[in-house]
């Protein structure tokens, strides 16, 4: 599916602002962004229940809609699975899954049976929706959406109604089935964890625009700006002023090429990429190429989170507040002096807006 230059405004306000992307068969793309950024509107336009002001959508190279031509929603070969995936309460599972198929369950026993087996729901073929748990209903809804073999499947927060502990298992099962079916999937979510787990490609959306797109690895390890970095984890931010393409900090100098002298930059690092060393009578570790210069800091608070500990510090120079995560149990008392270093290969430097 190719989406090109979609624009949609409400009351003169662009809610979808020049959005373009491609999803290939068998690929899962996640449209990720905070509430209100325009994700659902984009999905609704692709589904055909809303209309763009400009831009076009192609499926398998064929035009589905632009501003003059429009295939009706039911003839788009696009499947839908929305948040409240409502199954038809008066129909058994078999008829729910067969709903989009010509001839109903009677004419499609094989396809329906195969799909139900695939989602581990065969034994519920005659059950009614109210007899199923939320997770089971979700599995049936997935089978129903895939039954007519759509070329594209649109999923809007499909797992948000489920118990947190069930979600990862259902996400993995869903992903396996989607891959087998070879459908192009566009999944809308506001949860970075979900996008990282499901996506081949993440489309990071903010204020109606896609600000970054790529594989989860790229978005996590090469964010385009501070907000993109902050979307995937807590971050530490140091600010500094550029002088001769360098920015001076308590952790040594950082290269900031291309940023004009005198302008401010933000140096961003995730908590797990801070290195901690003990104080040895007022001395810390020697500077290295990998970790730069160590800065003395004091513990302000330490908390145990289960898999890791979260330790907050304030640097002696500049009184910068920083947070580090350390695997396992590490709970130094407040005021403990420690030396902090920033893993240089994990630091992002952005001009300050
Ligand atoms: N029919 C409409 N008329 C006016 N404004 C609308 C309409 N539909 C959506 N909007 C506005 O467009 C913006 C984007 O909404 P949209 O539902 O696409 O965002 P979203 O990213 O999916 O958020 P959420 O996750 O909360 O659904 C919101 O500010 C919303 O109020």
From TrEMBL:
Domain ABC transporter, by residue range, is: 1-232
What does the record list as GO biological process? Answer: quaternary ammonium group transport
What cellular component GO annotations does this protein have?
ATP-binding cassette (ABC) transporter complex
Q: Which domain of life is it from?
A: Bacteria
Q: Which UniProt keywords apply?
A: ATP-binding, Cell inner membrane, Cell membrane, Ion transport, Iron, Iron transport, Membrane, Nucleotide-binding, Translocase, Transport
Q: Name one GO molecular function term.
A: ATP binding
Q: Note the InterPro entries from the entry.
A: AAA+_ATPase (IPR003593), ABC_SmlMolc_Importer (IPR050093), ABC_transporter-like_ATP-bd (IPR003439), ABC_transporter-like_CS (IPR017871), ABC_transpr_FbpC (IPR015853), Mo/tungstate-bd_C_term_dom (IPR008995), P-loop_NTPase (IPR027417), Transp-assoc_OB_typ2 (IPR013611)
Does the keyword section mention Iron? yes
For this entry, the protein name equals Iron(III) transport system ATP-binding protein
Q: Which organism is it from?
A: Paracoccus seriniphilus
């Amino acid at each position: 599916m190719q989406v090109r230059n979609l624009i949609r405004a409400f009351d003169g306000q662009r809610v979808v602002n020049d959005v373009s992307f491609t999803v290939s068969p068998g690929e899962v793309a996640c449209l990720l962004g905070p509430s209100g950024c325009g994700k659902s509107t984009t999905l609704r336009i692709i589904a055909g229940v809303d209309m763009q002001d400009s831009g076009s959508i192609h499926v398998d190279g064929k035009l589905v809609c632009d501003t003059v031509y429009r295939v009706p929603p039911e003839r788009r070969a696009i499947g839908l699975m929305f948040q409240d995936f409502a199954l038809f309460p008066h129909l058994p599972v078999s008829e729910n899954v067969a709903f989009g198929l010509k001839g109903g369950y009677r004419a499609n026993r094989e396809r329906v049976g195969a799909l139900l087996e695939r989602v581990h729901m065969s034994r519920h073929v005659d059950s009614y929706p109210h007899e199923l748990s939320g997770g089971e209903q979700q599995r049936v809804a997935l089978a129903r959406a895939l039954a007519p073999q759509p070329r594209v499947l649109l999923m809007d927060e499909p797992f948000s109604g489920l118990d947190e502990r069930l979600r990862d298992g259902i996400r993995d099962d869903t992903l396996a089935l989607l891959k087998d079916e070879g459908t192009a999937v566009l999944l809308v979510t506001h949860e970075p964890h979900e996008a990282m787990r499901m996506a081949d490609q993440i489309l990071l959306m903010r204020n109606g625009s896609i600000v970054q797109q790529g594989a989860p690895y790229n978005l996590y390890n090469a964010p385009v700006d501070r907000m993109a970095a902050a979307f995937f984890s807590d971050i530490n931010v140091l600010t500094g002023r550029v002088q001769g393409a360098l920015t001076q900090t308590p952790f040594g100098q950082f290269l900031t090429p291309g940023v004009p002298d005198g302008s401010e930059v933000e140096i961003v690092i995730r908590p797990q990429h801070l290195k901690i060393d003990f104080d040895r009578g007022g001395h810390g570790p020697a500077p290295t190429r990998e970790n730069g210069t160590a800065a003395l800091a004091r513990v302000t608070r330490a908390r145990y989170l289960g898999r890791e500990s979260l330790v907050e510090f304030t640097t002696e120079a500049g009184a910068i507040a920083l947070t580090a995560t350390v695997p396992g149990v590490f709970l130094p008392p407040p005021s403990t002096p420690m030396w902090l270093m920033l893993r240089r290969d994990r630091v992002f430097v952005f001009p300050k807006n």
